[in-house]
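Hello Y.,

Per our agreement to keep a running log of every chain we model this quarter, I'm adding this entry. I've kept the format consistent with earlier entries: sequence first, then predicted structure.
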Amino acid sequence: MPPAEIVPDTEHRGLIGALPEWLRDFAQLARFDRPIGWWLLYWPCAWAVLLAGGQARWDLLAWLLLGAIAMRGAGCVYNDLVDADLDRQVARTAARPVASGRVSRRAAWVWLFALSLIGLVVLLQLRLPAQVVALASLAPVAAYPFMKRITWWPQAWLGLVFSWGALVGWTELRGAESNWRLAVLALLYAGSVCWVIGYDTIYALQDIEDDALVGIRSSARRLGSRVRGGVALFYMLAMGCWAGAFWLLRLDWMALQALLPLGLHLGWQVLSLDPADGANALARFRSNRFAGLLMALACWVVGNA
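Predicted structure for the entry above:
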């Protein structure tokens, strides 16, 4: 990929660009300059709350949003600490604060602890069963940075992690219920996992050449020339799971129509994706913030019926 087409992983714009340099480095370390990450972490939380009938629980939705921002930031700091040596070898990530040396490892650990304290405040707002479910995510979160070293499908592991909020949101409102209700949650979660694999495969297209040189594995590299078909398959699996969840909850063909705008949007992503164009891939990846909103609206309609 020509250097002109590489989109750096850190950006100096908006409020982040107005910060003093030392504060800007910490903001970038937590990816506050790239809010797409915490939106993608938040949406499964919101889907579960809305599908479980929590349309009036604006307090819970707000707490989960704060938790997504804080814990996505903490996860990024942890990821950068683990991956600093690899990041230095990839053009898009070489300027990250830890990889470039602008933030020391000790300072990064302190920042990680501070962000985790915010996450703890959010955790204490939940009932005990939801707290237990949320804490159970720590092990897969800690393992994620190592997945790109041992599997061609780190995107699948990310799917498990980034979809975990659906389990937390549902448990907070519903707890342990009848088998068919849990089947709704299982399908919602499985669909989210497939969605994450799809959009993170698109994201990985930006680094495919550097990843090959460094030895980082990804679904984008594994799929190769079939990457568009692979993304389409995972998006179709996601839509199928979500349609199943809606059907189990409402047993009404009209409920499935709520997914139509989302299906059209995901289809546009696949049809307009250019695997050889990093800027194109980044734009399609970022559009999943809107895809998450469309799914949230569908859950609001079906959960409120």
